[in-house]
Write a structure and sequence with these properties.
This protein has 163 residues and is an alpha/beta fold. The chain has helices spanning 11-16, 54-65, 75-83, 85-90, 133-142; strands spanning 2-6, 24-29, 41-45, 69-71, 94-95, 117-121, 124-128, 146-150, 157-159. It has five helices and nine strands.
Length: 163
Amino acid sequence: MKTLITGGKSAQAQKILKAFTGDQILLGDYGDMPSFASAQYQFVSLGERNEDTIAHTLLNACLDQQADRLLPLYSFELEAVMRSAVLFEEFNIHVLLPDLLHFPLYLSEKITDKNNWAVFDKGELLYAAIPAAQLAVLGKEKTLNGVFYMNEAPQEQALFTIA
């Protein structure tokens, strides 16, 4: 599977690479990008940042790079991509974000531990920074989709984002 992760120049995006060891990773970001590539990932420029066309820009990048999955990390991308998730799915691009109905539940500013995060894909736990048996169950129960900070209270998850 080929996964495009935005915020590619950030340390946060690069630490998420651990969750996708079996994937070919594209680290996308706006503006100039390093030309360095490794066996696990390559950098991709998303062009100049234009918040009016974010969903279109990311869809084109996924299509151009033949990405099967998109993980938007910038907070300014989330709503635009989430609202366009059906369009991405029509092109067989799976977006790692909660659905439109549940999206507002995960926009918490209250994050108790930034080292405790996990990646879920349609409820399946892909990776947990701090492994815990209940995470797999929680992911399935809530059909979690995306990267979440896992706050201490079991019902409090917050989307992992870059400001």
